[in-house]
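Hi everyone, sorry if this is the wrong subforum. Our group has a chain we'd like a structural model of before ordering constructs, and none of us has done structure prediction before. Sequence below.
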Amino acid sequence: MADRGTEYHVQKIQLLEEAIALTEQFLSARKTRLEIQAEIEELKAATTTLHLKKQIIKEAMELVRKQNE
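Answer:
Right subforum, don't worry. Here is the predicted structure as tokens:
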């Protein structure tokens, strides 16, 4: 009887260890996804900034061209 009880507890501990390992993997993957998402948002902001700068330069060049005519 004691052997069955011991075996049960050993199996329970193994299952808990597997659950902990899977939880750690999930949290690690989630963190990675969140980091990637943050980098994507930074790149979007940078792209928007570059687009606005490009537009300003384009408009400035157009004004210079008109002034030189």
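For your construct planning: The chain has a mean pLDDT of 90. The two ends are 102 Å apart (CA to CA).
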